[in-house]
Design goal:
Layout lengths: L9 H6 L2 H11 L1 H8 L4 H12 L1 H4 L13 H21 L4 H28 L1 H8 L3 H33 L2 H13 L26 H11 L3 H11 L22 H8 L1 H11 L2 H4 L5 H18 L7 H28 L8 H29 L5 H26 L1 H4 L11
Helix pairs in contact: 2-7, 2-9, 3-4, 4-7, 6-7, 6-10, 7-17, 7-18, 9-10, 9-14, 9-17, 12-18, 14-17, 16-17, 16-19, 17-18, 18-19
C-alpha cells in the first residue's frame, strides 16, 4: 500500500497543531492568574505577558532552520517537546519572575516553530491528501487549515480550564509535569502523518542539506512574485480585526463588569472560535481561498461599521466582542489555507514559506491595534468607540477593495500554484 494511503484523517492531522494553542492559551489566561497569585502588579503582568508573546513576531527569522537537513516531522516533534519542557519548568519556577518569563518565552517560541514546521509539512503532503480524498486542492487546503485552527482554539480552551484545576488539586511539581505532558501530547499524532512521497511511493524529506543550499533556495523563494503578492495581501489590514484585542480594554464604555469580560474571554470564546472555523470548508465548496479571504474581510469590515448603530450596553459588548473574534478566526483560517495551498509538493523551503506568510498576518494586528488606540484617544476630530469603529472598519474595507482590484487586474494574484515546486530536486 502506498505511504500516501496510510495517514490519519484530515481532522486529526489538523488537531496536532494544539501545542501552539496550549502554550498561547496559557500566556493569555492562566499565566496572569499565576502571577497575580504571587503578588505581581497589573502593569508588571502586562509587561511579562507581552514579552512572552513576542516570539509570535520575531520567530520568523528562525524559519529557514526548519528546512535545514532534517525532516519537518523531526523539527515539529522536537519543538513540541521543548515547548512542554519550557512550560513545565516555568510553572515550577513561578516564584522567580526572570526565570519564569524566559521559560515561557522559550516555550512559546518553540510552540510557534513546531506549528510552522507542521504547516510546511502539511502543505508539502497536500497533494497526497487531495489524491487520497479524491477532492480538489483548494478545498482540502481549507479543510486542513480549518482543523489546524480548531486545534489551536481547543488547546487554548483546554489549558484555560485545566491549568487552574491542576494547580489547585496537585502539588506544583506534579501540576507542572501534567501541563508539560499536555503540551507535548498533540505530537503523538506526528509519527502517523506521512512524509512527502514521489509518484513511485518513495518518501521524500524535501529539506535542504547545507547552508549554501539553504541560502540559494531562500534567494529563489524571495524572487517569486506570488510570494510577494501574498505578503502584500497579509500585511495590509484586510483581515486583522485588531478590535478583538482592544474591546476588552474599553469594556467600561459598555458598562460591562470585569467578571462579565472574563467570562466572554474564557473557554467559551475558544470553543466558539473552534466551531466557526469548521464553516470554512463549507464556504470553500463555492469560493476559493483567496477571494474567500477578501470576502470575509469585507463582510467583517462592514460589520465593524455596523457596530456604530448599537447602544453602549453589556449586550452590545458581547455582540461586538464575540463577532469580531469569530470573524478574525474565519479570516486567519482562510489565510492559513492560502499559505498551505501555495507551498506545493516539492518545495524545499515549505516551512520557511509557511512561517514567512503566517508571520505577515500578525503584523497588521500590531499596527492596527496602535491605530485603534489613537483613534479612541482622538484622531481627525473623532474619538471614543466611534473613532475606533470608523478607522478600523474603513481602513480594512479600503484594503480589501484595493487587493480585490489587484486580484482582478493581475492574474498572478489569482493563481495559487499549488503544484509548482520552488526548485526541481
Amino acid at each position: 500500500m502506498p505511504p500516501s494511503k496510510r495517514r490519519p484523517p484530515v481532522w486529526l492531522m489538523g488537531l496536532s497543531n494544539a501545542t501552539f494553542g496550549l502554550v498561547g492559551g496559557f500566556i493569555v489566561l492562566p499565566l496572569p492568574q499565576l502571577l497575580a497569585a504571587e503578588g505581581v502588579g497589573v502593569a508588571k503582568i502586562a509587561a511579562i505577558s507581552a514579552a512572552c508573546l513576542s516570539p509570535g513576531f520575531w520567530v520568523f527569522l528562525l524559519g529557514p532552520l526548519l528546512d535545514l537537513r532534517f525532516s519537518r516531522r523531526f523539527y515539529a516533534g522536537l519543538f513540541a517537546i521543548l515547548a512542554g519542557l519550557g512550560l513545565a519548568f516555568a510553572v515550577v519556577m513561578k516564584a522567580h519572575l526572570p526565570i519564569l518569563e524566559a521559560s515561557v518565552m522559550i516555550s512559546y517560541a518553540a510552540a510557534v516553530l513546531s506549528s510552522n514546521a507542521l504547516g510546511g509539512w502539511l502543505g508539502a503532503i497536500l497533494p497526497q491528501v487531495v489524491e487520497g480524498a479524491h477532492d480538489e486542492s483548494n478545498h482540502e487546503a481549507v479543510r486542513l487549515g480549518a482543523w489546524t485552527q480548531v486545534g489551536s482554539f481547543l488547546g487554548g480552551g483546554a489549558i484555560a480550564v485545566l491549568a487552574g484545576e491542576f494547580l489547585r488539586l496537585f502539588p506544583v511539581s506534579l501540576a507542572a509535569v501534567l501541563l508539560g505532558l499536555l503540551v507535548m501530547l498533540p505530537a503523538a499524532v506526528f509519527p502517523w502523518i506521512p512524509l512527502p512521497v514521489e509518484a513511485d511511493g518513495v518518501r521524500r524529506r524535501t529539506a535542504v542539506e547545507s547552508f549554501a543550499e539553504l541560502f540559494r533556495d531562500l534567494k529563489q523563494l524571495l524572487t517569486r512574485r506570488e510570494v510577494w503578492w501574498m505578503m502584500a495581501l497579509f500585511l495590509a489590514p484586510t483581515g486583522s480585526f485588531a478590535l478583538t484585542n482592544q474591546l476588552g480594554g474599553v469594556a467600561r464604555d459598555f458598562h460591562a463588569s470585569d467578571a462579565f469580560v472574563s467570562r466572554m474571554g474564557g473557554a467559551v470564546l475558544s470553543f466558539a472560535g473552534a466551531t466557526v472555523c469548521l464553516l470554512l470548508p463549507v464556504f470553500a465548496r463555492w469560493v476559493k481561498p483567496l477571494p474567500l479571504y477578501l470576502t470575509i474581510g469585507t463582510v467583517g469590515s462592514l460589520f465593524t461599521l455596523g457596530l456604530l448603530l448599537l447602544p453602549k450596553t453589556p449586550a452590545a459588548f458581547a455582540v461586538a466582542f464575540m463577532a469580531e473574534n469569530v470573524v478574525q478566526a474565519l479570516s486567519f483560517t482562510s489565510a492559513v489555507a492560502i499559505c498551505l495551498s501555495t507551498i506545493g509538493k516539492d518545495n524545499p523551503l515549505a516551512a520557511t514559506q509557511f512561517t514567512l506568510l503566517t508571520s505577515a498576518t500578525v503584523l497588521p494586528i500590531l499596527y492596527m491595534g496602535v491605530l485603534d488606540g489613537r483613534a479612541y484617544a482622538g484622531l481627525a476630530g473623532v474619538s471614543g468607540l466611534t473613532g475606533m469603529y470608523l478607522w478600523d472598519g474603513c481602513l480594512s474595507l479600503v484594503a480589501c477593495a484595493v487587493m480585490a482590484f489587484a486580484m482582478w487586474r493581475w492574474p498572478v494574484v489569482r493563481a495559487v500554484k499549488a503544484d509548482a515546486p520552488l526548485r526541481e530536486r
